[in-house]
Amino acid sequence: MAPSFLLRVDLNTRVVESLPARTVGLTPTRRTDCFLQVPVIIWDVAILSLLAHVADRANAMFAGIYRLHEPSGVNKYLAVWGGLLAFCGVLMYFLLDALGEESFFMGPVYIPPAQEVSLGVVLAGIIIAAAGAAFDWPKYCAISCGVAAKYFGIAALVNALAAAVFAAAMLVPPLELPILFTEWPGIYIAIAYSSFVGFGVFGLLAWGVMYQNLPNFFSRSMLDRRSVILQLLLSEVGVYVLSTFLFLGGYTGASLVHDGGVGPVFVGASMEFTDIPAAVSIFIVIVSVFLGALNIARAKNSTTQS
Description:
This protein is mainly alpha-helical. Helix content is 70%, strand content 6%. Helix 5 (145-167) packs antiparallel against helix 7 (186-212) and helix 9 runs antiparallel to helix 11. The longest helix has 35 residues, at 225-259.
């Protein structure tokens, strides 16, 4: 009779060996029970081998990702902007505290939430600054002055189209905008629209022209892509938020005056919700202008290495 065999599984090396059953001293009945377990053992070994293979591949993949994103040093760009953001949050908090001491009728309502937001800005700045020690993104990337000019030219065109859409609101009778312009709070509406056109359209167009002619003006042709995009984002956010809140304040006040029945004190108090967002937006626009000047000052020649 042919000798019986038993499968021996080594889980450490995932090797399956076939041994004669007599070498392990099994009776025929026990040998039969063992042979019934052979398919289960083979299945378990296959699953273990597959899991081990998947684990090895996963470890290799994550090790590669870590090496790819492993910071080579402190990201000064994130650290500096995070520190500036935290400083702006602190400055905003104390300015709001000083505003509460002035004749701000709705100060007790609007100032405490705004101060909480300023503390959130401080926290965000600290997080961004700390991230500079862990991430090397965004990295320096040089772009030509023509590309930067293209960015601002496209943004100016989009804002010009938006200005045309906003002006079309004058043609909507239920809004009564031509009538509301004649009331004294309507000046807010005029300031909102002129600010949007002045900075959002002509201002960005002027920056585009400046960047396009930067090689002729300053003999420099390469800019930091990170700062150019940041300047564009700050400009857009600042001008849209400023125009929106000024328009809402002017429209609310002009509607109250036009409808009658309320005095100028109540009208002024109803428009105070625009003061803090408008002030923050003006500050953002100012920062974008200084950042643009910094971009020009830090521009490089095409042969200069970053």
